[in-house]
């Protein structure tokens, strides 16, 4: 084989390898975004539940969960196309001395279209639940 027989081989190799490497990098970016958002949504759910469990009334607990969940995601730089924070605060209605918990579910629709990876959906919903124990010896409304 002479050098003339190998003319253009590098161009063919580049035409095959470069798109494959770009696709791999894009998939890594999608995975990294989903991993990061999952962690921040879990943290937001737990912190929202904790803040709701410290309140004395159900309306105040709902407001605290909504505020803390939203602020936590915003401060972490998490972009949610849609965000819902739902609090289950019936434990605040139990009598003092009875065990009770507060549950919060956070749902975040994460955009993926900006990563320009073929085959990925435009967005994915990530959700997490957090719970916190209500102090048994604390006054409740």
How many beta-strand runs?
3
The overall average pLDDT, rounded, is 88
Helix content: 40-55%
Order the strands across the largest sheet as they lie in space: 1-2-3
Q: Which regions have little confidence, pLDDT < 50, spanning 5+ residues?
A: none
Identify the overall geometry: rod-shaped
Alpha-beta content class: alpha+beta
Distance between the amino and carboxyl termini: 89 Å
> How many domain regions?
1
Query: How would a crystallographer describe the biggest sheet?
Result: 3 strands, antiparallel
Question: How much strand?
Answer: 15-25%
Oligomeric composition of the shown chains: single chain
Number of helices: 2
**Roughly how many Å is the radius of gyration?**
24 Å
What is the N-to-C succession of helices and strands? HHEEE
Walkthrough of the structure:
- The chain has 141 residues and is of the alpha+beta class.
- The chain has one domain.
- It has helices at 9-53, 58-75; strands spanning 82-88, 100-111, 123-134.
- It has a 3-stranded antiparallel β-sheet with strand order 1-2-3.
- The radius of gyration is 24 Å and the shape is rod-shaped.
